[in-house]
Design a protein that fits this description.
Elements: H1 10-25, H2 53-63, H3 78-86, H4 93-104, E1 110-112, E2 115-116, E3 122-123, E4 126-129, E5 154-162, E6 165-173, H5 188-199, H6 222-237, E7 245-252, H7 278-284, E8 296-300, H8 301-311, H9 316-324
Parallel strand pairs: 6-7, 7-8
Antiparallel strand pairs: 1-5, 2-3, 4-5, 5-6
Helix pairs in contact: 4-8
Amino acid sequence: MTPARKDTAFIPAQRLAQGAFLTQAEPDCAGYRGSAYRLAPDAFARNFAPELREMARAYFEGLYGIAWHQHVAHGLSSQAACINFLMPLATRPDWLSRLVGYALEIAPPIMLPVEPGPGGTPWYVGFEWIGKADYLNEWPAGKPATRGANATSTDAIVRFEHDGRIETLLIEWKYSESYGAPVDAKGTEKRRARYQHLAFAPRGPLRADLGLTLDDFFWEPFYQMLRQMMLARRMEDAHEADTARVRVLHLSPAGNRDLHKVTAPRLRETGGVGHLDAYTAFQACLAPPADGVARFIPRTIEAVFAPLLQQAAGERWARYLIDRYSFATQPG
């Protein structure tokens, strides 16, 4: 089967776009090591919208001890982009409600607080969520894990009420990522010990009738998507924060076709179908939920944000996104 077409135009275009933006917006710290789209590591907060810089550090470092990603000072950082897009909505549940409605194709729901933000203000978006318990046997013995490091996490989390049901939406954010190689084989035995009994139905999210093994998912992005789906399943089974349903929303740019490559050999032919798209292949591996509502939702950033940015174009937070990430304004 011919693999998905390799499209490399998106990432070089974004390097140019981010380099041009940062050179103009942050001229004193852009151009680290000769790359216009990189900031000096100690200036990583300048990768966020100006009104978010102190807030982000207070939330990540002061309140919750959340780890920063290694490349958060890079103009194409997914963590920085996620913060720029979602943190402005943490205290704006009205706009956040519209966003969730677009993402899930439902009427705008009632948003519920996730946790306190800086100053004790209720925040309707949380970041680097790992769950409230060691659902996947990953935390250090006797103490909680560090959010964003050495444990399965999603970039963000929101909670809402819809049709009389409290739901949780775990959000994974991608920007310029692409994958190809399998995960490091050195950790295989530990992965099997942790996840073998949590991956397949009836306890886990994967179908058990396809002849697949856990090892077949040890290729990115499938390994990450599986762990996030296991986390969602365990959170749902535990009714974390009174949640009746937990879903994973996977957001990525429409132009990043490299992200759709089916890297795991066995997953290219799941269900007797030849798959050329990573998300289609992964969805074919998931057990159908009892209530018929899909728990894994891949959407493009453009499809979710373009209508919101059009409506909010007069808002300061929206103008920053439009100016910096113009691709997100294109419906798709």
